[in-house]
Amino acid sequence: MDGPFSIAIGLIASGDPALTGTIALSLKVTLTAVSIACLIGLPLGAGLALARFPGRGAIVVASNALMGLPPVVAGLLVYLLLSRSGPLGDLALLFTPTAMVIAQTILILPIVISLTRSVVEDLWSEYREQLRSLGAGRLRAVPTLLWDGRVSLVTGILAGFGRASAEVGAVLIVGGNIAGQTRTMTTAITLETSRGNLGLAVALGIILLLITLSLNAAAWGLAQSARGRLG
Amino acid sequence: MLSNTRALLLCAVSSLGSIVAVPAFAQDFITVASTTSTENSGLFGYILPMFTEETGIDVRVVAQGTGQALETGRRGDVDVVFVHALPAEEQFVAEGYGVERFDVMYNDFVIVGPDSDPADTRAAENAVDAMTAIAQAGASFASRGDDSGTHQAELALWSAADIAPEGAWYLETGSGMGATLNTAVQVPAYALTDRGTWLSFENRGDLTITYEGDPVLFNPYGVILVNPELHTHVKAQEGQAFIDWLVSDAGQQAIAEYQVGGEQLFFPNAQ
Description:
Helix content of chain A: over 70%
Distance between the termini of chain A: 53 Å
CATH architecture of the largest domain in chain B: 3-Layer(aba) Sandwich
Number of strands of chain B: 12
Order of helices and strands of chain A: HHHHHHHHHH
Number of domains of chain A: 1
Number of helices of chain A: 10
Largest sheet of chain B: 10 strands, mixed
Number of helices of chain B: 11
Shape of chain B: globular
CATH architecture of chain A: Orthogonal Bundle
Strand content of chain A: under 5%
Largest sheet of chain A: none
Distance between the termini of chain B: 73 Å
Mean pLDDT of chain B: 89
Number of domains of chain B: 2
Low-confidence stretches of chain B: 1-26
Radius of gyration of chain B: 22 Å
Structural class of chain A: mainly alpha
CATH superfamily of chain A: MetI-like
Helix content of chain B: 40-55%
Mean pLDDT of chain A: 91
CATH topology of the largest domain in chain B: D-Maltodextrin-Binding Protein, domain 2
CATH topology of chain A: MetI-like fold
Order of helices and strands of chain B: HEHHEHEHEHEHEHEHEEHHEEE
Number of strands of chain A: 0
Radius of gyration of chain A: 20 Å
Oligomer: heterodimer
Shape of chain A: globular
């Protein structure tokens, strides 16, 4: 029997369309979820850092706690929501990539919100006086602070990407692991394990790790060059 | 502010090449809830392209245990269910969730266990005897424990043997057939599995078939259209076309043709 590494190399070299389709879908779903989570989470996290209102503490604690939300629970909630017998059943989204995007967004959002809040809060307490002297109020300061904390924020966003791309519980429930439609890298690994194809399962795992590794390397490179430009 | 745009660009960079995913409506398709045994054995991979070529209808299979597949059908999340647990299927139709059950095919269950056969199941006269021998020897037994068709068949055997399976020897994995077999290989333990999954399973270790052949191990598969009167979005026409094809000569022949390692896995038996 071939070892997992040689299977992985063989798979990559063969350019198997089923494999490339699975990789493309995994990336599409997770990157879409990361983007949506950023669009919502960055402004929300910054607002949470700067605004003062009753119940703020509860929201901060809740968003921190939700970072530990078990993926399978997130999946179950989205399943019950999107099921034909659920409140959003008419949208016919269950067992589609969109359903997987929704589930992963729910998993990533707390990470983006909590991290953004923490980064922006620190920067605000550090630069409050300077920003005020420049005439920037809390709201006006948000973009500046987000830009200033971009390196830390990218790390958080990558953590979110990692959580979403590595999880299997949620996408299995809401996507259904349908071949060619909703089969991602992680659900394919689960399937091959259940078929006793342990070598192939590990090979797919190696490929998934390589993808995550390249994305992280790219983000690190970007952060380094950003630092370089700042001097 | 320029920096505002830049902050958002961070996200754009991390989402390079991503497009909002939308379901494809271009082609006719139906969604079928079926069992891990039909999916894992590779049967669908063999027969579904033939159906799609003939009718232009794409079939999307969600592979679950029989219990979960019927629940998915009850909720109206699929158009057709294709499972193997006759009493549960008949109840599904009687309760109005399904239109009518059609016989499609059968395979059989086998008892697999360590080659050394510590419970001496090879000498058993029938399947109930074999299960009794395992329990009396206190030999490890890995159970699906997930309300699947296989699990229900196993419970029926224990019940026929008048044994309440519990104790350190009885391991409920709560997982699919493949995961349960992976566990049985490691323990090592006996397990009840459908022949199809066993023949296509690649990680057998020291396990082998120790008992087979009792007619009580007969494992019939049925196909049911989810009731379109209950769930109006069900694609009744396309779903029925799939059922009609499965029980037609062409469908039955395709099922009979499918082999793994030179062995036929499923035997068509449509009326």
